[in-house]
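Lab meeting prep.
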Amino acid sequence: MPQLVLIRHGQSAWNLENRFTGWWDVAMTDKGEAEARAAGELMAAKGLDFDLTFTSLQTRAIKTLNIALEAMGRLWLPTEKHWRLNERHYGGLTGLDKAETAAKHGDAQVKIWRRSFDTPPPAQEAGSAYDLSGDRRYAGVPVPHAESLKDTIARVLPYWDGRIAPALKDGQRVLISAHGNSLRALVKHLSAIPDDEITGLEIPTGQPIVYELDAELNALDRYYLSER
């Protein structure tokens, strides 16, 4: 039976400061690093092991993966990094305080930007402080100006179909360290969650999610490892 575990990166500085982060790189907090370490220790204690790991091109997800693997004694495992596993791009909201943004634009508008399925936030202006179009890691990548959850799903699933799903069907045990919205995309796909329900799904930081899948990668069960 294919084994898949998903983990959202440990708490970041902007999680703590309640700011929109998206594709921007921010440091993990001490709590975030502790969450990653605890996740690795829990996976080891529960007898989980992996053959292949995947993560985004964002430091907080990469570091979470490395800390967890080190705690498992598996830092040597092969890892593939890809921009398609990046967090949702928050466009012109990137770097803004969520509470201040709500005070300026109204709670209802910010809720639409944050939680609607197919309405993206305002586009990021070229040359703005958080413009990543010139970042070396994204050379040749169509860096979005903003993304809705629907947009995020549309760029995550081709990577799932083209690389991750074949690895699982080949019998490899897979761990994915990514972000709240890129993981929502995978959970929606695997668990067939409707559009109007997936936006309400909260994925906490540093908590491994275990999927039990059949040979065709249909989900038989989904649970947080800490609850079993």
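Slide two material, second protein:
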Amino acid sequence: MAADRDLVLDLTGVADKDAFMDRCVAVLALPSWFGRNWDALAESLGDLPKPVLLIVTGWHAYARSRPGEWETAQEVFATAVDENPTRLAVLLSLGESSEDPLKRLS
């Protein structure tokens, strides 16, 4: 998949689902009607207008503090990628650095 947009979803400081959804809204430029729930996120990921490479960083603390929510988030991402492999790719940054991975690659 050749992505038209590379986006970084930095979850540093995210402590709960509300904050996670707020970050998704900001990074993915989701519409004002976005419901801020898992089903709405899944639907929005399936409706992306252009191919997107989403790089998720800073997720470790959120995963440790809210493992159930993090598992659900991963399932939503995985399902969206499976259903739209030409529109979405999601990469998890394994390092815990908050530095923008796109800047490091350039």
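Talking points for slide two:
The beta strands are 5-10, 52-57, 88-92.
The longest strand covers residues 5-10.
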